[in-house]
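Issue 218. Parser rejects a valid record. Input:
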Amino acid sequence: MAAARARASVALTTVDASAPRALAGLVAGKVQPHALHAEPHAWIEKNCYVDIWIEVLAALGVEPVAVMPFALAVDFEGDQWTFFKPPHRDLRRLYGIDVQELNVWRPLAEHAIEHLTAGKLLSTEVDAYWLPDVASTSYRRQHSKTTIVINEIDLARERLGYFHNAGYFELDGEDFRQALRLDVPAESDVLPLYAELIRFDRLVRMNDADLARASRELLQEHLALRPSDNPVRRFAQRLSADLPGLLTSGLPHYHAWAFSTLRQCGAAFELMAAWLRWQALHGDASLVAAAPALDRVSGGCKTLILKLARAVNSQRMPDVQASLDDMAAAWDEAMATLDQHAGR
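Output the parser choked on:
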């Protein structure tokens, strides 16, 4: 690719030795979420890993929509749809961002101080039980794994600034100690949290036309990686077999199932439709012809997630075949249109 690339200067600030931050100027509650995390999108939150990257990229001043072609290749994996994540190689190609696994060989807070001081962000798994931004779901209610990106840590004040889901937040006090496992003895045999280093000292900002062109190159790669047959039809077959048991398993089980299936499928194809419309503004307008079909897949998932919730609550067998048939036909239409206009 011959697109011109311009190095971007990013503000790096260290408050003091015990309270470093990687990105300056972020204040919890005052950071405007990216448009992908706002209406009219049906799936405001996608999954924790995609969501943090949308907000991190926006905070770095680059366009998150450009990295979304990977969502095209989501598949039905048997008991769930792909938990889709932006490939690290795509982040490097589009934005010059380098992501590497962090070997957590000492307390995570020490790693955070080390790397935030050096101007690197740190993503890590945490227990959502200790995240106040999910007060309506997991906070102090249930233990569940999620991913955050740490931008600022203040040991003295026990305060953490972090990206999670659709925003930028802070936690402190007991939440700080528990999220970072500061109260776990050093000799404990508890498994360390999985973490990654995010280096953006070589951040690249392309103009819209060059970024759209580079992103279309990713489309070709991910189009080749899409499922070899229609994944919606396979999902429909599995749902037909599992539906009687799903109706009697209760709402907590249903919500876990729905997140792993309908939400991942619906959010992925909504993101792809958003990417196609972005391309129409900055690159290849012909690709947008596939967007309405992808909207049908995403909208069908939204319809089903509500219909099935009511069915589980009432334990009455719903009629879902028509919706599934339309979603499967829409997937075929979208792929045929992309094949035609992407030059395959």
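Fixed in the parser; the record now loads. Confidence is low (pLDDT under 50) at residues 1-16.
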